[in-house]
Protein: Arginase
Amino acid sequence: MSRRFPPVSLIGVPTDVGAGHRGASLGPEALRIAGIGQALAARGVDVRDCGNLSGPPNPWQPPVHGYRHLEQVVEWNRALMEASLRELRDGRMPVMLGGDHCLAIGSITAVARHCRDTGKKLRVLWLDAHADFNTNEVTPSGNIHGMPVACLCGLGPDALTRLGGDAPVLRPEQVRQIGIRSVDPEEKRLVKQYGLDIYDMRYIDEVGMKAVMQQALEGVDADTHLHVSFDVDFIDPEIAPGVGTCVPGGPNYREAQLVMEMIADTGRMGSLDIVELNPVLDTRNQTGRLAVDLVESLFGKSTLMRD
Structure:
């Protein structure tokens, strides 16, 4: 099944500048130590590790006008946008090794521009415990890792919403959020106002993960570029403790595997974020190894040959 996938470029982005806990900056090395490159190569995927991007240090300052570290967040995202766009234009699949989830602004801005250039439709699957639809006016913390979906939909500072020149980068109907179980009080109002397509854990419990994924992938076809933004806190913290914002009650191992396998079955994944892995909070890289296991399933690993 690996023949469905283009060559992959791993792009490390070692920063926790958008997060509320330190440690996600170590995520890229934890994923490498867990063997992400070797695991994909073993599936027949052509893997190029581009190393880590460089950017400003985390100043660890309080919010200014509702944003923490906005200048540094912009700089990291611009570097990632440019690096991702280079790999896409070279016919490769960028796989971002984060880092915190604010970095999805840069990666998805690059993918959206590439889709405009190539005439592809863009669908984003946002696998996360959180909706990440805060703004500076409603955020409890000012941490920009809680704002990337809002920024991509045009709500936020120009430096981020117009990172690639055009805003909004996404329309809400292009995004499907899966596994959500933590939405801030005022964020709930924004989510409803903008009609975000959210499959929260209650809905998953009611209809099952297979039905959720069938709905989330409806309309994905040969003209679709599928971007997967995988926040490791999507998974239940009982099996994935190495994240900064644990929320109990997430998908279990088999549910998470089914998500990845059904995405792989489409053959349409063209880019991937892996974010919020925090090895400081992990147990012997348990969460890093689980993330790599799930990514293998995104690239076609399955129990039986199903073609």
Remarks:
- Residues 2-298 form a domain with the Arginase; Chain A fold (CATH 3.40.800.10).
- The first strand starts at residue 8 and ends at 13.
